[in-house]
Structures are given as C-alpha cells and as structure tokens.
Amino acid sequence: MRIRRSCWIPVCLALLSLALLGGCRREAPEVEPPRPGPIAQVPEAEPDPRPADEPPGPPQLPPLFRDIEKRTFQFFWDTTNELNGLTPDRFPSRPFSSIAAVGFALTAYPIGLENGWISREQAVERTLTTLRFFRDAEMGPEDEGRSGYRGFYYHFIDMDEGHRYEPWVELSSVDTGLLMMGVLFAQSYFDGEGEREQEIREIADELYRRVEWPWLQQRPPLISMGWYPESGFIQHDWTGYDEAMLVYILALGSPTHPVEPEAWEAWTRTYEESWGVFQGQEYLSFAPHFGHQYSHTWVDFRGIRDPYMRERGIDYFENSRRATYAQRQYAIENPMGWKDYGEHVWGLTASDGPQRTDQEYEGEEREFRHYSARGAGLSVAFDDGTLAPTAAVASIAFAPEIVIPATEAMHERYGEHLFSSYGFLDAFNPSFHYDVPLKTGRIVPELGWVASDYISIDQGPILAMIANYRSEFVWKVMRRNPYIREGLRRAGFTGGWLEEAGEAQAAAGAAGEGGDGPEAEGGDRVDEDAADAAPGKSSSGPSPDRDGSQAANGTTRRVQ
C-alpha cells in the first residue's frame, strides 16, 4: 500500500536570502523542538447546545483535537524548507525530503489559513515557492542531479537542491500521486483573481499535465510502481486493494496522458482475494491502515460507487469504516498477547519501530522491526506490538465514536512521552523493553519504546482528516476539481455528489456557462492552452526498507 540544479547557491547568497525572507514575511508562532513532558491544554469554548427538537449529530470533538490540529499544522509549516517548499520525510532527523510529504504540506497550508494560523499571503507565498520549485526542477533520465523524469518525481530528494537523494531511491508512481493530490488541491483552493493565485492554478495545471502515466504501463493496463535509471521499471504493478486508488484516479483523469478505463477494471480484478470477514466485519481488507486512509484524505467516497462496490452494496467510505472497527476489535482480542492493546489503545499501519531484532516474548521468539508496514487483516499482516497514533486519529471521519476515546486514551496514558511540540510522535511499543541498540527512539521505563521522530506521511492524514470531520473541508475543495471528477467517472463511479456535479455541469453547459472548462466550479481556471505542454523538462512498491521487511500485499514499502 501506498510517499514522496545543476548549480550550487553560494553560501553568502543563501544566507542573504534567508535574512531577506526573515525580514519580509510574517513570522509564524515559534514552536520549541520536540521534547517529552506534559503539555498544557487550552480549553475551547463549548458550542451552544442543540435545540431540543434537533436530532443528535456526530460526536463533538473535545479540545484536545484542536490542539492536535494546531501542532500538526505547525509541523509542516516549521519544518518545510521555506526557500524551495520541500518538506522533510521525517523530523527531527531530516536527511531528505519526501515528495509525498510535500503533497500533504500543500494540503496543510489552506487548513492553516482557514483556521487563522497563517495569513492568505503566507499560504500563497509558501504554495507558490513549492510549485515553482517542481516546475523548474531538472528532469531527465540521468541517474544523478535530477529531480524526476517524464513528469514523475523521485520518492526522496535532497532537502536543498531537490535532486534524487541516493541510488536506492526510485521514481515513484504512488508518491508522485500523493504529490499531485496536494498540487490539485492547491489549484482548486486558491481561486482568487490576483496574479499570484492565478499562477498557482497555472503551475499546478502544468505539473499535472506533464505526468506520463501510460509510460509506466509496462504490463498494460496496470501501472508499475516505478522506475530506476540504473535498472529500469519496477517489476511490480499496483493491483487492488491499497492506497494506489489515487494513482489510477489521477491517471484516468489526465487531459494529456490518460490511461484507459481498463486499468481500473484490472486494478479491481484482484479485489476478490481481499474481500472477506475479519474481526466480525465484512469488507475489502488491507492490513496496514494507511491503505484505508490515503485516498480518502482528498477524495470523498461517501455515496459514490464503482461497479465493484455497487455489486457489494457499500461504498469505499463504509469499507474504511468497517476496517477501522476491525482494527479495534483485533486489539481487543489481542491474539498475540501484546501489552496494553485494548478497546481504546489500537492502530496498526506503516510506522517506525524500535529495531530489526528477534527477541523472546512470553516464552516464544518474536520478530520486531524498525520502519515497516504493520497491520491486521485477511492476509500479509504483521504485528510486533508497535502502535501508531495516526492509524486511529486519522480515521476520525470514518468512526468518530471509537476514534475520539482512543485518541484521548493514548494522550492521557502516554502523552507525557508521546505527545510533544508537533502532536503525537510516530509510534510506541509498550511491549519492547529489550536492552539492544535502537534504530531510533528511546526506552521509557514502565512504558516501553517510544519513537523520537514525526513522519510526514503519518502527520498529513491526521490534520486533513480532522478537517474533513469538522467541515468536509478537503473533500469539498477537491469535489470542485474537474480532473478528479473525470478520473472517478472514467473509473465507473456514479451517484452522490459526483452525479450532482454532473447535473450542475450539464445545466451550466445548457446555459452557455461552460462545464468542466477553464472556469469550472469554484475557480478551477485550467489553462487549456497548456494541453500540449511538454512532459517535463528533460535535460538531454516502492523501495525495500533497509531491514528487508516486506509490506502487505507482497510488495515492498518505502524506505525511511
């Protein structure tokens, strides 16, 4: 399931640029570096009580969630390189940027703006800086000194120059997809008439139109996980069900390099291997929970269904809700006997862990891992006692009635060590107390192993899905994007808001107001003259983790 210049700037100019930027921009509130310790909470004003005759709505979010949102937003705002818009894969150990992290960061800036944490001017400036970097980045087939090729970008790139980080880094289809979701979100959100917001829309359009999706169809109609300049195409394709739903939706919606609808048919053809009953829930299973979250971060799947889900009688949103309940029930049953698992402490996904080591636990040898895909499901599941707050918190829109108490419980029980400057650290393992060298993190007496890093692609869904729960914010913006709607339609989705959008488009066309053209719905001013834009600026699953761990569905997962 499932991330991510030829000339060096002289040091003096870089320092001068930093000084000028520091003097010109409005300073964001400073947040101290991550540290363990209690966090003072500032209660929110309670909303007015509902009228007696009004039916009860979804659960109200307690003040803790506002604090989580603010801290998680501040993570993206503070750690991103403000000179080029590149966001680190992780922090505070930040050796490289992840292009998937940039996609989440581009989504975070409007959330910060809507909440009053930054000004529109600040959000526009940071977004433009980011988009301009990717537009101007050096592209080509060379194995060094390039950021991408044929519209795709390398999974991990240098934080300063933006070049491919190291030879083990692949040109990634899914991480480019996560980046493009953020790019299209920015295109639809910044709908002002000013030149700078127009430029955001134009560059976003150019970046999306550059991506040559069919180039990665080496075994048509499926899309390969990526490409290496040294060895060529990765010999694994994206097959369902996992986070690559967004890859196919983007590829189907492309106005310049689309794939055909048979790609979605082939993608869903393997679903039968993953449909079944697990922990009392009948659903399409994928063990690590990020596969049930990533595409949903941007796409509102409520009430819209493709042919497969129409046959099953549910939609993908309901599928993720059932998967969330199955995660909790797995923790309640706790078949492996891990410490602290239960009704309010649960959540398995791709996350950090203590170390790749085999140790004895309750009389038997158990495998522990560093960064790895962890999960509970019908197949290819792995559980070493490591829990990730993002698995639960980022599921808030699916099942608030179980996510809210889980979030509060993790904060109350472990917050002194797990909750810090930028919200929840990535993961913790109450069962790991072994005296071995740790890859990352630390051992806390009576608590076990606790991560020392925040990971961007785990932070991003937390922030965006809380926003979706509160007001459907990210979903509403992305419903306006004509490319997302077209991708869904070509995949065979019908019903709900998608049908309503089609009717509105037809009505607008009948009234002579266009449809999904350059000025369609909410400022999607697409530059149609760019339709034949060159696919990038050519100058002439994902990677295996370092422990060799295999992710769910038999594919390798991203290196951390």
UniProtKB/TrEMBL annotation:
Coiled coil: none annotated. Residues 516-531 have a biased composition (Acidic residues). This is Glycoamylase-like domain-containing protein. Residues 550-560 have a biased composition (Polar residues). Residues 1-22 form the signal peptide. It comes from the Bacteria. Keywords: Signal. Residues 532-543 have a biased composition (Low complexity). InterPro entries: Glycoamylase-like_cons_dom (IPR019282), UCP028431 (IPR016883). Residues 29-64, 504-560 are annotated as: Disordered. Residues 235-482 form the Glycoamylase-like domain.
